[in-house]
Amino acid sequence: MPAPAFSVVLRTFEIAATFAASKRTHAEAGAGVPLRSIDISSALAPCQPSRDKDENARRRASPPSISRCLLGARFRFVSDSRRLLRLVMSAYDGLPQHRWPAAPEFLIELHLLPRGQRAFEEPPPLQTQEMPDALCGVIDAANYVLVMPARERALIVASEDMLAEHAQHLRQELIEFAVFILAARSQGLVPLHAACFGMNGRGLLLLGDSGAGKSTLALQAFVHGWELLSEDAVFVRPNGMFATGIGNFLRVRTDAVLFDRDEKVAHWIRRSPVIRRNSGVRKFEVDLRRGPGRLASAPLHLQAVVFLANDLATIPERPLQPVAAIEAAGMLCADQAYAATQPGWDRFVAGVRQLPAYRLQRTDPVIALTALRSCLD
Q: CB 3.0 to 4.6 Å from 147: which of 68, 107, 181, 321, for a disulfide?
C-alpha cells in the first residue's frame, strides 16, 4: 500500500482552522460543559461524520468522556464513540497515577467515521508534518491526528474499518502519538527511545539500538522484583532528572528465549497477542498490568545511565564497564537523534553529565540485573 500523498496531509491541515476556531475553552471542558462537535466534512469531502437517528438528541447530550493521569498530567478523552473510549481504557486503565505538582490538564477529542471503500491488510505507518503551533500525523484521509500543544489539546479521527480491523495500530499510531506529543511538548519533557526500571523510587535509564535487548532486560527486571517504568518510551523532566513513562505493554520478539527457568512467566508471554511492528518484526505484546511484577508507582529519580552493547562480555560475571561523562554525552546524542532536537535537550545532557554512566555487555540477564543493582547502592 503506497504511503498517503502529502496532499492528504495538507487537506487535513484545514481541520486546524476549524479546530482552533472552536469557542469552547479548555476550562469549560474541564468544568463538564458539553463539548461541541467539530464538523470535519468540509475538510474531508469523501468522509461524513457518523450520525445517530436522533441527531438533535445527540447534540443535546454530553459526549462520553474519561480522565486518566498519564506522564505527569491529567488527560481528558472526549468522544462520540464509546468504542473509541473503550480502546483508550484498554490502553490506560490500571496504570499507576503519575502526576507532577501543578500539572496541566489536556483535552483529546476522538471522532469515529463510518466504514470506507477499502480496508488495509497492513495499514501504512504514520506520516507526520509540522505546522505552526501544531503537529499533524496521517495514515490516510479517514485516520489522522492533529496535536496542538500550545492549546493543550488534540483531535483524533479514525474510521470504523481501522477500529474494527487494526485497533492496535490505531492505538499506537494515533492515540499514543497524541498523548506523547502533548505530554512532552507542553511540559518540557525530553522524549527518549529507552527503557527505565529501578527500586524504591530510584531508576536506571537504559539506552541502545533496536534489538539491543532493552525489552528483554526490562521484562526480566519486572518479574524479578524491580519497579518497571517503561521498556520503550521514557520521558525525562530535566529539572531534577525524574523519569516517567507508560508501562502498559511490553513488546518482546517472538523468537526470543522466553524464560525457560519459569514456565508460568513463559506461558503468560506466549498467551499474549502477536503484533507486527513498522520494521516488520513480529513481537508479543505483553500486558504488564496482568503480569507478576510491579509497575513504578511514581516517577523514578534517575541514578545512572546504561548503554546496552551488542558484544558479549569478556568476563560474563562483570558485564558492566564505566563510561566517561564526555563519552556518555556523545553516545547519548548519537543514540537519540529525535530527542536531541527537542527543547530541554541541553539541560537533560547537563543532567546526564552529573550521573554515572556505564556500558553493559551481553551476558545472562540475571547476571546483568545483579550488576545493575550495584548502580542503585
A: 181
Q: Which residues pair with 110 in a beta bridge?
A: 79, 156
In 3D space, the residue among 205, 201, 225 whose CA is nearest the CA of residue 370 turns out to be 225
Q: How far apart are CA 371 and CA 189, in angstroms?
A: 29
- 225 closest CA partner among 204, 200, 208: 200
**Position 223: which residue type?**
V
The cell for 315 is: 568476563
Is-contact 197 228, C-beta < 8 A? yes
CA–CA dist 358, 325 (Å, integer): 10
- pTM greater than the 0.90 cutoff: no
Task: Return the bridge partners of 282, or none.
Answer: 276
pLDDT tens sequence across 45-75: 333 444 445 555 555 567 899 999 999 999 9
Q: Which three cell numbers stand for residue 116?
A: 470506507
